[in-house]
Amino acid sequence: MRLLAGLHDADRSLTKHAASRIPPRIGKVLSAVEETAESTKLWCGAAAAMAWLGGWRGRKAAATGLTALVIAQLTSNGLCKQLADRPRPPKEWFPHDEVDDRPDSSSFPSGHTAAAVAFTAAVAPAWPAAGAACAVPAALVALERVQSGAHYPSNVAVGAAIGLASAWLTHRAPRLMLRHWL
Q1: From residue 112, how far is each of 3, 41, 80 by CA, in Å?
Q2: Cα–Cα dist 33/27, whole Å
Q3: What is the dihedral of CA 23, 28, 31, 32, to 10 degrees?
Q4: Domains and CATH numbers, the chain
Q5: pTM of the shown model
Q6: Is the omega angle on the peptide bond into residue 109 within 30 degrees of 0, that is, cis?
Q7: What is the pLDDT of residues 56-96, one digit of tens each?
Q8: How far apart are the first and last CA of the chain?
């Protein structure tokens, strides 16, 4: 029980710190990146560019990334948010008006982070340069979710873990199915 209390306190402290320490100009950049990632637009656009410009490797990376993204979205938004009813951080902690734009759904876990990490982690093995390029906006999306007041850091961490697990499953599932069924 003490561990959970300690994690809760750390979550609150890190959230308040992010809300007060990130300069407004950086906050605007983070918000712009998150806006492009809203409804997975950024990742779908990246997949289209990879498929168009990257030949066979680009199409494979795009398909793998989108598959992992769908798994992450279903897991985070379709399952976990329905099971966990964690409120968003209090509005009073945030000195900006972005906090008014956050959703009313459960804050646990971060679906934006799950999608960003899933796409990036699934793309990287197929096309490392594209994965590296996707890592920057994925990290910015994760940071923005805390800075904007939409999530606690633990929500973002669990979203990232769901994204990594989704990418792993996307890469491993074909081999596991072949081995198990054939």
Answers
A1: 27, 11, 13
A2: 10
A3: -150
A4: 2-181 (1.20.144.10)
A5: 0.88
A6: yes
A7: 999 999 999 999 999 999 999 999 988 988 888 877 777 76
A8: 46
